[in-house]
Write a structure and sequence with these properties.
With 195 residues, this protein is of the alpha/beta class. The chain is 33% helix and 16% strand.
Length: 195
């Protein structure tokens, strides 16, 4: 960090992306990392990865609560997040994943994340065949046609989550991030913006 700051006047130095900080092992790893002398001073932004397949937002809440505990006042970027569109739970399908795009982004932003990045653009063809070796094979926003192979020439189309993500991105690009606030709601959560 010292060398980077000497070479560049205004760098933004992220921690390495911490996987599953909402889980016990991820939280313990992050706490141990921050005990190493000089680590806290080297980090401008805390980079966290938050994945889950549960039908709720408890993981986003635990992730952001941990960040506030271990690095109060430090910006948080969720540099990887995602939910599957194929999986073991009866709730997991493409419609649920689309709903979770809004829920995950809204929850993380309401809880103080500065930036949120969805992990993976496109599923491989036939993602169900890849799930055993690649559990994130269906987290993507796009799907490949089963007849096209992987690579730049593959035929891709939006999943419902991709359509929702495009709409959300277009809307959020116009929002002042400082205007975001959660307002009380019966049986749910509402994130209000300046629009």
């Amino acid at each position: 960090a010292r060398v980077i700051r000497e070479a560049h006047p205004d760098p933004v130095i992220l921690s390495g992306g911490i996987f599953r900080p909402h889980a016990e092992k991820g939280a313990a790893y992050l706490r141990a990392l921050l005990e190493i002398p000089g680590t806290r001073d080297a980090i401008d932004v805390l980079s966290l990865h938050c994945y889950f397949d549960k039908d709720g937002l408890e993981h986003t809440e635990r992730t952001m609560r941990l960040a506030a505990q271990v690095m109060p006042g430090t910006p948080v970027w969720i540099t990887e997040t995602g939910t599957p569109s194929i999986g073991r739970g009866p709730h997991i399908d493409q419609e649920w994943q689309a709903k979770m795009v809004v829920g995950v982004y809204g929850s993380l932003l309401a809880l103080g994340a500065d930036r949120v990045f969805w992990h993976t653009l496109s599923d491989p063809p036939n993602p169900e065949h890849h799930l055993r070796r690649a559990p994130f094979a269906s987290h993507s926003l796009l799907q490949s046609a089963a007849t096209s192979g992987p690579g730049p020439g593959a035929q891709r189309s939006d999943k419902p989550a991709g359509t929702v993500y495009r709409r959300l991105s277009t809307y959020m690009a116009q929002v002042d991030p400082q205007s975001l606030q959660e307002i009380p709601a019966k049986d749910g959560r509402i994130l209000e913006t300046d629009l």
